[in-house]
Write a structure and sequence with these properties.
This protein has helices at about 15-25, 50-60, 65-85, 90-100, 105-125, 145-160, 185-195, 230-240, 250-255, 310-320, 340-345, 350-360, 385-395, 425-435; strands spanning about 5, 30-35, 130, 140, 165, 170-175, 180, 200-205, 225-230, 260-265, 270-275, 290-300, 335-340, 365-375, 405, 415-420. The protein has about 450 residues and is of the alpha/beta class. Bound molecules: adenosine-5'-diphosphate and aspartyl phosphate.
Length: about 450
């Protein structure tokens, strides 16, 4: 049996956390391939090393003195090395980093050093081989992850070693330049490694005992989810449940490898199993709730819209031409609404509005900002009548004004749009009606 284990930044924030991780790995000989993140926050006011690196590099790029910032980053690693009692020096590594920063090697290179250095420490601590992710994980010139090349080279490379540490979050272009995944991307590296070695399980260790029914930062101590399907999880992680990166399921899903989310601070807890399919029913009608703030709704009205063939295409073209992706498009007989990310849209809004007028000739275009989207997800919802009704009566009782409803045809999820300021209340109301009343 082979297990691939990824440890998040919270699990590797200090020497004390490293020791817990060491115990977990040593307690099971099948934990052969380890993917570490960069050191995360030691407490809620702390800063993640990745954020320190971004800030330090921004100073370097602006031609400012960045020595003190780099020194603070070095101190984080030295504290870990000392706490573990390792005979290891990162002096040379930091000289190279300083030189690269001066030569403006780019923020991707800068951010990647967080996992790179942590990987070197982890390999020394465990006595495992260190495999630099830049030599085994590849991106094409367009910046897209090159799955085929990676799989070939990574699986060949890992066949040559019994046990290895592969830092998360980054890889390289053909020419060797470092490129990172998006934030939280070490989860993706773990999944890629698990796929490449055809692992029996991909364990993703974090600071919560698995996926919880709702975000613990909004709901106090929500219950955990024992088993969840890849599809349900994708909906939840895409909509803001940050435990697992939304793209981390693809490499393991292809190989049918289950993911087990575990807690470094409570290693005996079973955590959550993420599987292709299951006959296990979830404890509640819903499996989970997640949501994100910061959306805009562009409402487009045109009389007799329903009879105009091609109207929807023209509307979406106005967004496509401006490089904006859309989230949801609920529509009525004479109205159509396009939900977009506010931060992507804000600079281009007037260009989009004029393109809408030029392409689709609407009667009216109106923009609403500061909206939140909430996903209520559950494989059990399909067979349960009245789920939507319960959601809306709960929201009405909580005085939350529902601005949009969208139910996917798979009936796996219901998406609700509310104003940003109603976000927490709406999540609490939905949680109460489905979970609290049954607890
Ligand atoms: N539904 C959820 N279940 C569990 N945790 C959640 C959920 N939604 C959001 N979170 C947050 O995700 C955090 C874990 O993700 P992350 O910070 O990326 O961990 P790591 O540093 O281990 O990669 C938890 O501490 C919790 O605050
Ligand atoms: N360190 C990177 C990548 C990552 O996945 O981190 P974490 O496992 O702590 O979420 C980040 O902060 O984005």
């Amino acid at each position: 049996m082979t297990k691939v284990v990824k440890f998040g930044g919270s699990s590797l924030a200090s020497a004390e956390q490293f020791m817990k991780v060491g115990d977990i790995i040593r307690s099971d000989a099948e934990r052969k391939f380890v993917v570490p993140s960069a050191p995360g926050k030691r407490n809620s006011k702390d800063t993640k090393v990745t954020d320190m690196l971004y800030a330090c590099y921004a100073a370097a790029e602006a031609g400012e003195d960045f020595k003190a910032q780099l020194k603070a980053i070095k101190a984080r690693y030295e504290e870990i090395i000392k706490g573990l009692g390792l005979d290891l020096s990162l002096e040379e590594e930091f000289k190279t980093i300083e030189k690269q920063f001066k030569e403006k090697a780019g923020d991707n290179y800068a951010a990647s050093r967080g996992e790179y250095l942590n990987g070197i420490i982890m390999a020394a601590y465990l006595g495992y081989e260190f495999v630099d992710a830049a030599t085994v994980i590849f991106f094409g010139e367009n910046g897209e992850f090159d799955g085929e090349k990676t799989k070939k080279i990574l699986s060949e490379r890992l066949k040559k070693t019994e046990r290895a540490v592969i830092p998360g979050f980054y890889g390289a272009y053909e020419d060797g330049r470092v490129k990172t995944f998006s934030r939280g991307g070490s989860d993706i590296t773990g999944s890629i490694v698990a796929g490449a070695v055809k692992a029996d399980v991909y364990e993703n260790w974090t600071d919560v005992s698995g996926f919880l029914v709702a975000d613990p930062r909004i709901i106090d101590a929500p219950p955990g989810i024992d088993t969840i399907t890849y599809r349900e999880l994708r909906e939840l992680s895409y909509m803001g449940a940050t435990v697992l990166h939304e793209d981390a399921i693809f490499p393991v899903r292809k190989e049918g490898i289950p993911i087990n989310i575990r807690n470094t601070n409570a290693p005996l807890d079973e955590g959550t199993w993420i599987v292709e399919s299951t006959c296990q029913k979830s404890k509640y009608v819903i499996t989970g709730i997640a949501g994100k703030k910061g959306f805009c709704a562009v409402n487009i009205e045109k009389d007799m819209m329903n009879s105009q063939i091609g109207f929807g295409r023209k509307v979406l073209q106005a967004f496509e031409d401006n490089g904006i992706s859309f989230e949801h498009v609920p529509s009525g007989i004479d109205t159509m609404t396009v939900f977009v990310h506010q931060d992507e849209f804000v600079d281009k809004e007037q260009k989009v509005v004029s393109a809408l007028h030029r392409l689709a000739d609407p009667d009216m275009v109106d923009i609403e900002s500061d909206l939140a989207l909430i996903a209520v997800v559950g494989r059990g919802m399909k067979s349960m009548r009245g789920t939507a009704g319960r959601i809306f009566s709960a929201l009405a009782h909580a005085n939350v004004n529902v601005r949009m409803i969208d139910q996917g045809s798979s009936e796996l999820n219901i998406i609700i749009g509310v104003s940003d300021e109603d976000f927490d209340n709406a999540i609490r109301a939905i949680y109460n009606i489905f979970v609290e009343v049954q607890l």
